[in-house]
Design brief:
Blueprint (H helix, E strand, L loop, with lengths): L2 E5 L2 E3 L5 E8 L7 E7 L6 E7 L5 E3 L7 E6 L4 E6 L8 E8 L14 E2 L3 E5 L1
Parallel strand pairs: 2-11
Antiparallel strand pairs: 1-3, 3-8, 4-5, 4-9, 5-6, 7-8, 9-10, 9-11
Length: about 120
Amino acid sequence: HVQLVESGGGSVQAGGSLRLSCAASGYLGTMYYMAWFRQAPEKEREGVAGIDTVDGRTFYADSVKGRFTISRDKAENTMYLQMNSLKPEDTAMYYCAGRRLWTWSPLAVKEYSYWGQGTQVTVS
């Protein structure tokens, strides 16, 4: 049973920073990809950033490139999302997710089987 628990959300002014964490526990096996998604009110969930745990490649949505950085501490089974230069349009519930197999679409919602409960980020 895999558990993903996000933390680090909160309220911040535009231009500020937040660091989200995703702690993984349970039978992890090999998570091929780990990723962050977000969902704003009345909008579809979208991929923000992902990391290939095998070769370390990272993937970002165009809207966050240059501002967000995804990283992973393998020993601690924890994934992070450093968010800088935050904008009001970054306001959303942020979720971490995991996938065991390779995919052509590492930021596609439908590709992920394991999800956390989310942490709210509000930028004003």
